[in-house]
Amino acid sequence: MEVKLWNDKRERELLESLADLYAIIKATEKLERAYVRDLVSAADYEADCLKLISQFNSLSSSLAGVVTIPRFVQAYRLDCPAALNRLVQSGVPATIELRAATSSSSAPPATAASASAIAQCVQSFITAMDAVKLNMLANDQVRPLLHDLSTSMGKLGTVLPPDFEGKVKVNEWLAKLHKMGAGDELTDQQARQLNFDLESAYSAFMASLPTAGL
User: Where in this chain does the record put each VPS28 C-terminal domain (predicted)?
Assistant: First the structure.
């Protein structure tokens, strides 16, 4: 007798999303352990970890209201403490946490940005870039994310210069969005430009952090 795992397309897509979530958590756990054991380079670890975090954030958003991460972990008996710390608690790769801590400790106490502030800025960048890639282009979707990013960059003290191009670009986009209605959407050309500006600003931001010997 054939056992049906789903009754319609919606149920099938839900099960596929849950399977993807399971795979992301397990993959992150393996990556974290490989990094701790020095089985993967810092550069490869960071790139793979950022990709997994981005995928996790996207899936978590799509499953909001359907399942919570704690319930999911409990239901499927996932023993992945390192992955949950990275995906849920931290939200950034360990390499970035180390660079943030190094940047914080090397700056003068009166102007140093905390490691958590730098990590939060990274999260804000990732969230904003993911939203654009997922075609979340309505003003009331994009503007709050850019506002959070602008606020995060403003908390970084001397890590970023006052004329940092990323700050300038984000503020220019906020000014444009302020003139639009809440339900107005960015055009394809505007979305492409915003994505380019965000990725360029993120690359410049990451380059401004010390390597900490990584």
Answer: 113-210
Question: Residue 123: pLDDT above 70?
Answer: yes
Report pTM: 0.69
| Res 213: pLDDT | 46
CA-to-CA separations, 197 to 1, 16, 69, 125, 203, in angstroms, rounded: 55, 33, 32, 11, 10
Distance, in Å, from the CA atom of 16 to the CA atom of 31, rounded to the nearest integer, reads: 22
Instruction: Judge contact between 146 and 129, C-beta under 8 A.
Output: no
pLDDT, position 106: 57
pLDDT, average across residues 147-157: 88
Domains located in the chain, CATH noted: 9-103 (1.20.1440.200), 107-205 (1.20.120.1130)
Cβ atoms 18, 56 nearer than 8 A: no
| pLDDT at res. 5 | 62
Count Cα atoms within 13 angstroms, Cβ side, for 39. 7
Backbone angles phi, psi at 136, to 5 degrees: -85, 85
Q: Which two three-digit tokens encode residue 8?
A: 């319609």
